[in-house]
Amino acid sequence: MKSPHSGLKRIVYAAGYSWKGFKSTWKHEAAFRQEVILFSLMSPLVFWLGDTATERALLIAVLLIVLVVELLNSAIESVVDRIGSDYHKLSGRAKDQGSAAVFISFAIAIVVWGGFIISKLLS
């Protein structure tokens, strides 16, 4: 359904919908809460690891990617669960694929952060 709002009003409404998404995911998804806490704990380390604004942005960005992928995975799980609780191989596949995407996003973050940590410790 197309939004009846336009311009700045549409942006304000979209921000409200986004906030609802954050709140509901925080409330219903333990993994998202854990990842937000991890993000909060690791973010200050960017000032030790990153020497330039670009390096710091990269370190923050890979942490944000984990949160984005977790939000998308949670959305997939919500849609699948809404369809029904009976097992179906396609529902299981969709959930497994979402989980795999989260795993890969973590791997990206680990590779990037690991590279920066190793570089910092060796210098």
From TrEMBL:
EC nos: 2.7.1.107
Catalytic activity: a 1,2-diacyl-sn-glycerol + ATP = a 1,2-diacyl-sn-glycero-3-phosphate + ADP + H(+)
Cofactor(s) essential for the protein: Mg(2+)
Signal peptide positions (record): none
GO molecular function list: kinase activity
Keywords, comma-separated and alphabetical: ATP-binding, Cell inner membrane, Cell membrane, Kinase, Lipid biosynthesis, Lipid metabolism, Magnesium, Membrane, Metal-binding, Nucleotide-binding, Phospholipid biosynthesis, Phospholipid metabolism, Transferase, Transmembrane, Transmembrane helix
Lipid bilayer topology: Multi-pass membrane protein
Role noted for this protein: Catalyzes the ATP-dependent phosphorylation of sn-l,2-diacylglycerol (DAG) to phosphatidic acid. Involved in the recycling of diacylglycerol produced as a by-product during membrane-derived oligosaccharide (MDO) biosynthesis.
Name by which UniProt lists this protein: Diacylglycerol kinase
Source organism (scientific name): Thiomicrorhabdus immobilis
Gene (UniProt): dgkA
